[in-house]
Amino acid sequence: MASVAEVAYNSAFHSQIQSHPMARSNRSKSSARWLDEHVNDPYVKQAQIDGYRSRASYKLLAINDKDKLIRPGMLVMDLGSAPGGWSQVASRLVAPKGRVIASDILPMDAMADVEFIQGDFTEQEVFERIMAAVDGAPVDVVISDMAPNLSGIASADQAASIYLVELALDMACQVLKPKGSFVAKVFQGEGYEAFVRQVREHFDSLVVRKPQASRARSREVYLVGKGFKG
Ligand SMILES: C[S@@+](CC[C@H](N)C(=O)[O-])C[C@H]1O[C@@H](n2cnc3c(N)ncnc32)[C@H](O)[C@@H]1O
Predict the structure, then answer these.
(1) How many distinct structural domains can be found in the chain?
(2) Which pLDDT value is given to residue 31?
(3) Which of 28-42, 68-82, 118-132 has the lowest mean pLDDT?
(4) pTM value?
(5) Which residue segment(s) compose the domain that 51 sits in?
(6) Number of C-alpha atoms within 13 angstroms, CB side, residue 92?
């Protein structure tokens, strides 16, 4: 498994992919489709009514309804947290005494009871700042909704997303308390089955969830590992 310390992020390679002409034309088509879907999406409308920052909130709510992961008083780590839909859900669920530590490469507006660390999760320095925020406290649940910026080149996007989720699992293994839980978005494709096997090694049970708010045509699923073996 890749560890944050061991793997150097190749950002030059990533920017080459982003500027590839094939990536640019695919991206403009998918941006138009995304905008069209977004305007008509019932979860987007519901998020506006409920005061959630993103439609993603409904994915975590659905997972938590089924798997009963986040409870009052817990410490939750939210990776890939911006704009903050999952952090909102988590901070409400852990209230009044719980805590959320959130991190994203993008900025995120402040939220009560959420400590936010901005930076690229693939960088060792960011990993260390998150660890400093945890300060040795046993984490109950690590949730990761991280997804890389899509280049439109499927194999590169898949590799980048597996890389991020492997780093999230590595973090979970370092901070979770025994019997803690892990939720991570993963895209089905190259490397998916191997990643599922890695999660199984570390948790007593593993289920794969596809919440209703996750678009049917998206290859994203959520792995839920329960009972961290420590
Ligand atoms: C689907 S969004 C998360 C939505 C969020 N869970 C919510 O409920 O609002 C995926 C996030 O992963 C973040 N991300 C992608 N690559 C990252 C990286 N290298 N380090 C940290 N965050 C990253 C993106 O900036 C983006 O905010």
Answers:
(1) 1
(2) 75
(3) 28-42
(4) 0.87
(5) 11-228
(6) 12
